Amino acid sequence: MKEDGIMAERRTDNVHKTKADEGCTGSDAPITTREWYVINDIISEIYKSPDTTQARRAVLDRIGELIPFSTGSFMLAALQGGILDYFDGVLFNASPESIEDYLENYQHLDPMIAFYSQKGEMVYIDSEYVPESMAKASLLYQDWFWPNGMYYMLGGKLMYNDILLGSMLLGRDRDETDFTLREKEILRIIGDHLSYKIYTIYPNGVTKQAVELGGDPLAVKYGLSYREIEVAELLYKGKTTREVACSLYISENTVKRHASSIYKKMGVSGKPQLIVMMRQAGQQDITSG
Asked: Which of 75, 211, 238, 246 could form a disulfide with 86 if both were Cys (CB 3.0 to 4.6 A apart)?
């Protein structure tokens, strides 16, 4: 990050305006025809993408044509017991190590964490929420955001049907200008489509486990763990409790506990209904394999 020896003034009365916006106020500056063409191209790429990683990459690769930025991260996320859990980041000019540093050492200091757990506004300009005095006094800003090229920030949540799915964050260095309300509106438009795309893949919300399993329909639709999927697939193939235990090198009591959890998560009363549900979920027919 550029160091000039002087702390640049971060907030001014015209903080959301750039020279390009003179004479306009925030989102009153119209999105141009050219910008709409780019927006529609990005949206098209989102829906063509086979998974959430490529969908997020499609946005990061093109959104700079509309919203200049120096650093970006699009994370998947889930609320677990009121705690925000970030994972599987798609990054631009940011390292996985720096993101890990944030998650381990600075996330608890982030004043915007509450934004992601609330309904309502989907996108924010950081300077709208964090006063300059707070930013200057914050270890998070001094030790992480600013050194990582995020002096100005435009962020948002990926959410659909009130289910949090992820986050978006674009940053600019201190020698650049703050984000505008028009840019905020552009990110909101694209973010709405990206949110829906992720929701179509993970309709019950995203979890690390579901991502690691590559979107397995049982993990995604019913929230089954990796071990529960193994047990369910063996039961589906007609294996007895003892046979499942032998195949997985676990006790019969452990198989029974997994089966009980599977039945509860899938809303079935027992093995016969499980077989029907798995067939409907597109699983392999019981007679094959």
From this structure: 75
